[in-house]
Amino acid sequence: MIRIEYQTQRLSLRFFMLMLVLFLFQTAFGLLLTGQHIDPTLLAGTLNFNVVRAEHTNLGILWVLSGFIGAILFVGPLLSKRELAAPGLIRFLFYALLAVVLWNVATQVLAEQGIAGWWLGQPLLQEGLEYLEAGRIVDVVILVGFAILCHVVWRSFPPISQWNEIHWGLGIGVLALTLVWIFGMFFVERIDLQEYFRWYVVHYWVEGVWEVIHISLVGFLLVLMFRADVKSVGFAVFWGISLVWLSGLLGNAHHYFWVGTPEFWQFWGSLFSALEPLPLIFCFWHLYLDAHQDGEPLANMPAFAFLLGSVVLEQVGAGILGFTMTFALTNVWSHGTWVTLSHAHLALFGTFGMLGIATAYYAIPLMRGVGQFDQRPGRLAFWLVFTGMLGLCFAFAIGGTVQVYVYRTLGLDWFGGEVAPAMLFAKLLVPVFGLVFTIGAGLLVYDLLTLGLRVPVPAAARPVAATGWGRRLSGWETGLWLLAMWVFGAVITLGLLSFNLRTVQDGSMLFPYLMAGIGYPGLLLTTLLFVARFLRSLAARGPAAVSDQAVGVAASLAR
Predict the structure, then answer these.
(1) Distance (Å, rounded) from C-alpha 381 to C-alpha 127?
(2) What HEC string does 426-440 produce?
(3) Long-range CB contact pairs, 86-92, < 8 A, 24+
(4) Measured between alpha carbons, how far is 134 from 104 in angstroms, rounded to an integer?
């Protein structure tokens, strides 16, 4: 039976379980939102749209954080080669996170009634800023929780003189996670300054802190799964983190275009935002190199599938779709529309959510001593959530393109009824793909919650011929797939830029609709086919038992 070496790794299990439960609830709120988009009177007066949307957004952030904490606690002892420090504080951190979740869910209803609990100029109960909804009381609890995580990581790691690049990435990441949160802990009456501070937290978390933790965790998971060389992975982690900070710090300015800030931000924000995909390409390419360094069978396909999905959707959602809409000349049209939703869903769920799920699929079998397990539910769940999310983002992107034309270009009244009928096709697509995604989410939550508890029924993997789509994926072919994604991204960018043309502003929808009709389906279908090709080539290596993981972990850590 497989056994983990460090018992404090088991403390990560409760965070993974919380992650799965919150993920399921967030998905349920998302389904409710799709219904309210079609019928705005649905649950009006009971659960209004703004409350449901805030719950959906906040639960998304909270389950991603829970997954991050679980992943850090699981790999921490493997990096440190000793038990985690202060296990009592880790247990307290879990209950503090649970309290924050319950508080956020309960206090969202207060926003609907205008109750913030003001005292000494601070909203104690509910803040009401998008993504930063919690009041000051919970803000303090969150700060304490981050400080605990930072303390545990730094106390558990070896002396700084012995750190490698992955130590540095996680160590600096958890420290920055704590410090950046301080910018979200005070209220400023001027809306432009408040937006500055709000985006310090939101942007620097995502593109300056979470990305650093993401790159570090992806690197170490590659070491565990493929026995990759730690020095080689560390090289990739170093350059990935460096490029994240080079581009992300000033790239934050794309959030400042339209809140009364100086005009020079439009140039510098556009320039550095355009550089932000560079570290994402680097991270993706190293995943390809490590996965193809040998021809050994892949022991845990669900874990790697979600890891691949995380890195590829980071490239597509955060990189390509982020690139298309963060120039000032495109952002002036896309800002605050469904086009933004397409980017945000792929970037948040794809990059960070899938990483947490990948780590859970790797860690839970080890912690529950499962030698072999039926991987079919995990593989099916991956394809359902992956396809469902790509479909959702297609619906958001097409609906957003219509939204930009009808509302912003033609100048029609947002609340006058002209926009909703024009977007009806896209609004009907959302629940269709949302249902596909929900089925996949339910399947993976069930699979992970019960893995090792239900009667094991290992299924022999079907042999895959190493020909056709099962042949080895070469670097040249991978580069062509990546190039195709960026070509479609360029088409999308041209479509958004075309809204600046006089002919479009005079009423011609041909060019923006044509570019969107080519670009979005092309990008998302290419992404789907490429991931299928990548996983097919790995499956052709032959069947393997999950027990091979233990050998890989031991060999990697012995270096």
Answers:
(1) 36
(2) HHHHHHHHHHHHHHH
(3) 86/148, 86/151, 86/152, 86/155, 87/8, 87/11, 89/148, 89/151, 89/152, 90/8, 90/11, 90/148, 90/152, 91/11, 92/148
(4) 6
- Report which residue type is found at 49: F
Residue carrying structure tokens 């299924």: 459
Positive/negative CA dihedral, 260, 261, 262, 263? negative
CA–CA dist 540, 325 (Å, integer): 38
Q: What is the largest CA-CA distance in the chain?
A: 70
Examine the pLDDT at 243 and tell me if it is beyond 90: no
Per DSSP, the chain holds a count of helices (H) and strands (E) of 22, 4
Asked whether the predicted pLDDT for residue 549 surpasses 70, the reply is no
d(C-alpha 43, C-alpha 37), whole Å: 12
d(CA 494, CA 516): 9
Give the whole-angstrom CA distance, residue 443 versus residue 248: 36
Question: Residue 344 is encoded by which pair of tokens?
Answer: 């945000």
Residues 466, 186: Cα–Cα separation, whole Å: 58
Reading phi first (left if > 0) and then psi (alpha if -120 to 50, else beta), residue 264 is in alpha
Q: What is the distance between the alpha carbons of residues 39 and 221, in angstroms, rounded to a whole number?
A: 44
CA distance 559 to 549: 16
CB of 208 within 8 A of CB of 176?
A: yes
Distance CA 431, CA 33 (A): 9
Which residue type sits at 424? L
460-500 pLDDT, tens digit per residue, is: 556 677 778 888 899 999 999 999 999 999 999 999 999 99
Q: Which of 213, 224, 211 is nearest to 169 (CA)?
A: 213
d(CA 543, CA 545): 7
pTM above 0.90, yes or no: yes
d(CA 211, CA 310): 12
β partners of residue 122: 119
> What is the 8-class DSSP label of residue 462?
P
pLDDT at site 421: 82
Q: Rounded to the nearest 5°, which phi and psi values hold at 133? A: -80, -25
Min mean pLDDT across 164-168, 250-254, 337-341, 342-346 is at 250-254
Between helices 49-80 and 165-181, what is the axis angle to 10°? 150
The Cα 519–Cα 347 span in angstroms is: 18
- Residue 356 and residue 306: Cα distance in Å, rounded? 9
Task: Determine what percent of the chain is predicted with pLDDT higher than 90.
Answer: 56
